[in-house]
Amino acid sequence: MAENEVLNCIMHRRSIRRFEDRQLEENQLQQILEAGLYAPSAGGRQGVIFAVSQNKEVNEKLGRIKRANSHYRMATAGNYISKEQPSIADDASITNAFYDAPTVITIFVPKDFLFAKEDCAAAAENMMLAADSLGIGSCYLGEGYNAFADQYGQEILHKWNVRTDYYAVAQLLLGYARPQDAHPTPKVRKENRIIRA
Ligand SMILES: Cc1cc2nc3c(=O)[nH]c(=O)nc-3n(C[C@H](O)[C@H](O)[C@H](O)COP(=O)(O)O)c2cc1C
Known about the structure:
By secondary structure, the protein is α+β, with helices and mostly antiparallel strands. The chain is 30% helix and 14% strand. It has 5 helices and 4 strands; from the N terminus they run ααβαβαβαβ. It has a 4-stranded antiparallel β-sheet with strand order 1-2-4-3. The longest helix is centred in the middle third of the chain and has 18 residues, at 116-133. It starts with a helix and ends in a 22-residue tail after the last strand. It binds flavin mononucleotide (FMN).
């Protein structure tokens, strides 16, 4: 263990895909959102918008739409994402790409901004580390827009008053991990990824 709480969180955080069926405490959610608001952003523009959904029915429907619109190579025996907490690429029987997380934050950014994705990722990492420090599990999901890729999804965007010049880069799932699922084993780090130039 490092002698520094931030470094401890960085080492401890893992993607959680198995959640308890209880909602986050509101003050913890507020702290996580605050961490997102204080993330670095290109030019200090603070363009990132966070849509917090704790509506079980909406999350279930959007998670299913996302699952139906996620197209990538499925895992093989030697090439998988997580054996302990399978992702939708590991297990074709998972129908909800949000893994029944009680809180789903969709991160929207301006469509025409060069650094939009970086801003989203910086905010999400801040939030994931904040979550870990509070004992809350998280998982980052890319291609946030594919949760809205049908009529129901479009209606939700309208209902949430999301500006039409913004799009969803990612979802951040939040919830309490079941005790037995709180800390999946990280993959061994690949070698030779640092160049001391
Ligand atoms: C850009 C990006 C996209 C991701 N998309 C998904 C996703 O769609 N579904 C999912 O279950 N996990 C997704 N993840 C989580 C990764 O699978 C996870 O971070 C990786 O397997 C390493 O595991 P760890 O987070 O526990 O260290 C994504 C992570 C990143 C950074």
